[in-house]
């Protein structure tokens, strides 16, 4: 009974990791403002600031939730996590997906 729940948790983790790995940065993440690249704006260069959060406190960090850890917000940490998952987990995900498919075909 416990092994059945553990298997479901592994499948959920695999599916969520696959979902993160296939997110396209240009098509999806950039549209919602979660891209690692700097956004290109129409008003760029016409007196508008490149970074809307250019003013920090005396220690160089900006105010906000999660900004105490080196000035990184929760959003920027999630963007870095998505980028790292897409980069580092590409080959291991291929291997694990093939193993899961073979397992399901054999013992399904």
Automatic annotation (TrEMBL):
Pfam families xrefs: Yos1
BP GO terms, sorted: endoplasmic reticulum to Golgi vesicle-mediated transport; protein transport
Superkingdom of origin organism: Eukaryota
Primary localization class, coarse: membrane
Name the UniProt record assigns to this protein: Yos1-like protein
Protein family according to the UniProt entry: Belongs to the YOS1 family.
Subcellular location: Membrane
Keywords, ordered alphabetically: Membrane, Protein transport, Transmembrane, Transmembrane helix, Transport
GO cellular component, one term: Golgi membrane
Transmembrane regions listed in the UniProt entry: 6-23, 87-106
């Amino acid at each position: 009974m416990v092994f059945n729940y553990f298997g479901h948790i592994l499948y959920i983790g695999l599916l969520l990791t696959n979902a993160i790995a296939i997110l396209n940065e240009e098509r999806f993440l950039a549209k919602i403002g979660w891209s690692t690249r700097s956004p290109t704006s129409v008003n760029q260069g016409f007196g508008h600031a490149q970074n809307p959060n250019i003013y920090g406190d005396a220690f160089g960090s900006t105010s906000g939730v999660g900004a105490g850890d080196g000035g990184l917000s929760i959003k920027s940490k999630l963007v870095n996590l998505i980028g790292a998952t897409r980069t580092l987990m590409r080959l291991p995900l291929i291997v694990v997906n093939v193993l899961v498919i073979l397992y399901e075909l054999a013992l399904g």
